[in-house]
Amino acid sequence: MRITKRTNIAVRLLMYCAAHPGKLVTKNQIATCCNISENHLAQVINQLSQLGYLHTQRGRNGGLSLAKAPGDIRIGDVFRSVEANIPIAECFADADNTCPFTNACRLREALTKAAAAFFAELDDVTLDGLVCGNEALIAMLNPSQCNQDRLSA
């Protein structure tokens, strides 16, 4: 199973916010540190905000923060929410399915089970589990370290 760019950005964004508890972080800080285009990031921020994962504050002193405790954010739920409209294979897409074997294909059933197992595994992972105690990650997500890395590149 391949993770879309949007889901990858969503998880990086949530990890960055979790690594800065109690602080408003900016889109620019996240984009710089996590190597993400600000345009792509803005779309994901909007989606995660609408889904209730992020709190956004506009204005000069604005930014974003987690809307839930990191321990309450299950990565399986994030993946399901962000990947919701993306079929795992052509035969799962109602409108674009041109496969003539859909009604007799046993691979479709196997893929359904594999996807369920994939998400079940991610349901056991929380955002807190990804960030808490992960000193190497916290160091990487430190804004001064991000800026230092960009200057030396």
Instruction: Please report the number of helical segments.
Output: 8
Q: Which series of helices and strands comes N to C?
A: HHHEEHHHHH
Strand content: 5-15%
Mean pLDDT across all residues, rounded? Answer: 86
Write up this protein.
By secondary structure, the protein is mainly alpha-helical. The chain has one domain (5-86, 127-152): Arc Repressor Mutant, subunit A (Orthogonal Bundle), CATH 1.10.10.10. 54% of the residues lie in helices and 5% in strands. The protein contains eight helices and two strands. It has helices spanning 5-18, 27-34, 38-50, 75-83, 106-123, 127-131, 135-140, 143-152; strands at residues 54-57, 63-66. The chain has a two-stranded antiparallel ribbon with strand order 1-2. A hairpin with a 5-residue loop joins strand 1 (54-57) and strand 2 (63-66). Helix 4 crosses helix 5 (106-123). The chain is elongated and about 55 Å long.
Labels describing this entry:
single chain, 153 residues, mainly alpha, Arc Repressor Mutant, subunit A, two-stranded antiparallel sheet, 8 helices, elongated
Task: Give a brief description.
With 153 residues, this protein is mainly alpha-helical. Helices cover 54% and strands 5% of the residues. The chain has helices at 5-18, 27-34, 38-50, 75-83, 106-123, 127-131, 135-140, 143-152; strands at 54-57, 63-66.
